[in-house]
Amino acid sequence: MTMSATRREFVRTIAVGAAGSLSLAARALAQPGVPSAASPSIAKAVLITMLPKELSYQDRFALARACGFDGIEMQTVENPGDTTEILAASKATGLRIHSVMNADHWRYPLSSSDTATVARSVAGMETSLRNAAQWGADVVLLVPAVVDATTSYADAWTRSQRVIRERLLPLATDLGVIIAVEEVWNKFLLSPLEFARYVDEFNSPFLKAYFDVGNVVFYGFPQDWIRVLGRRIVKVHLKDFHLDRPNGRFSWRNLGEGDIDWPAVRGALAEVGYAGYVTTEVADGDASYLKNLASRVDRFLAGQQPVETR
Fold first, then answer.
1. Which is it for strands 277-280 and 233-238: parallel, antiparallel or unpaired?
2. For the chain, which residues make up each domain, given as ranges?
């Protein structure tokens, strides 16, 4: 669906997309000896920002469902009218909001030495947690700390843990929402061993790991991280990454177009018994693009490369 698509074209796209996704699931079920794309243990989701912004929330949710996705990851929303509209869209389409991405953790890190900055960050997370509770999501993604010229690694570790433990976990526990910390390019949690230790030190069922497959390729192998983190992983982000070492360049890619060994990643998820959502975090696009993306995720879940190699 393009920006100029009519309402009639939109409805037709939904009908065709739904039929196509059922066909993909049936083909995956017919493959013996491989994980099934239709398995209830792993569901595929799309980030809300990947859907056409000119559509209403309900139409965006309907499009994602028609293209073969099982869930939505929302971003934090402050306006009560919007949060109500989003909940209605989820109920009308039957598409679950499974997680919420916090908004202010980069600009206002919990690891800051400035009390006003930390207060702003805490307030943002409180909004995210309440969004999740309202929408029925079980997880909020949090970047826990940012190491920079003014914040040492050790300070980032202790400050962020203290704030999470004292000011965020009580609310998360009351609401029944898990805080899932993610590894990103913030000069923090630079190995799977550190990531595991950081999570374990909370000793709480409401503090887990949100693992991003693409974020670690620059300095590690995602399948290795998955095996170390194991049952600590509560959600997974999918995106590909290509590193052009001779020329010192890198780029984010669609699934199957980068350096990731996707069958190895799928195998590692199976080994640790991961059962949850995998959410695509790549470029946005129209219905044709989204249906193709859903089919790539299906191939990945079936233990194959997301795109066929020639």
1. parallel
2. 37-301
CA 174 to chain CA mean position, Å: 23
Residues 6+ apart with CB under 8 A from 191: 220
| Dist CA 178 CA 139 (whole Å) | 5
**What pLDDT does 218 receive?**
87
Opening angle at CA 149, ends 144 and 155, nearest 5: 45
Q: Which of 219, 175, 179, 227 is nearest to 199 (CA)?
A: 179
Distance CA 72, CA 295 (A): 17
How many Å from the N-terminal Cα to the C-terminal Cα in the chain?
29
Phi, psi of 188 (to 5 degrees): -145, 145
Q: Round to whole Å and give the CA distance between 138 and 35.
A: 25
Q: What's the confidence (pLDDT) of residue 286?
A: 95
State the architecture of 37-301 in CATH terms. Answer: Alpha-Beta Barrel (3.20)
Element (H, E) at 77: none
- Single-letter amino acid code for the residue at 211: F
Question: Tens of pLDDT along 73-122?
Answer: 999 999 999 999 999 999 999 999 999 999 989 899 999 999 999 999 99
Q: For residue 121, what pLDDT is reported?
A: 97
Spans in the chain with pLDDT lower than 50: 1-11, 13, 15-40
Query: Which residues, other chains included, contact 187 with Cβ-Cβ below 8 Å and sequence gap of 6+?
Result: 146, 147, 148, 153
- For 26-42, give the DSSP string: HHHHTSTTS--TT-TT-
Q: Which of 52, 40, 14 lies closest to 277, judged by CA?
A: 40
The rounded distance, in Å, linking the Cα atoms of 237 and 222 is 11
Q: Is this structure's pTM higher than 0.85?
A: yes
